[in-house]
Design a protein that fits this description.
It is a single chain. About 40% of the residues lie in helices and about 10% in strands. The longest helix is centred in the N-terminal third of the chain and has 12 residues. By secondary structure, it is mainly α. Helix 1 packs across helix 2 and helix 2 packs across helix 3. The strands form 2 sheets. It has a two-stranded parallel ribbon with strand order 1-2. A two-stranded antiparallel sheet has the order 3-4. The mean pLDDT is about 85. The termini are far apart. It binds a DNA duplex (13 and 13 nucleotides) through helix 2 and helix 3.
Length: about 100
DNA sequence: CCCCTGACTAGAA
DNA sequence: TTTCTAGCCAGGG
């Protein structure tokens, strides 16, 4: 295998988003708006989230995607926090980054 | 074809 | 600080 997922049947939007997520590297985090803009669909942040929620079974690094306010995914906060932590990204109180010692 | 929902964002109150 | 509104794209009924 060439290391690629079965993107057959994916819409241009999904393929574009999947490519952006796949282009990310360990330790990197982006927001829905960033992914949408990089994919060529600025403002389609909702479509990105909606798609990821529907393609959760895919090998897309959904955990590297967070909300614009730095908030993690509702219903997957602990899950994403753990995955982000494995990528070397500090998470505190359901939020990313900030150094970890700013004390709320 | 029409209407609503959704792992969203930015701005205003 | 929180809450609400308008805008954006895709999918399902």
């Amino acid at each position: 295998m060439t290391g690629m997922a079965d993107r057959a049947g994916w819409t241009p939007f999904e393929q574009a988003v999947g490519r952006v997520l796949d282009d990310l590297e360990p330790g990197d985090v982006v927001t829905y708006g960033e992914v949408a803009a990089e994919a060529g669909f600025p403002g389609a942040a909702r479509a990105v989230g909606s798609m990821l929620g529907r393609r959760t079974d895919a090998e897309l690094p959904w955990w590297r995607v967070v909300a614009a306010n730095g908030r993690l995914l509702a219903g997957h906060e602990a899950r994403q926090a753990e995955l982000l932590h494995q990528d070397g990204i500090p998470v505190s109180d359901g939020r990313i980054g900030l150094g970890g010692s700013e004390g709320r």
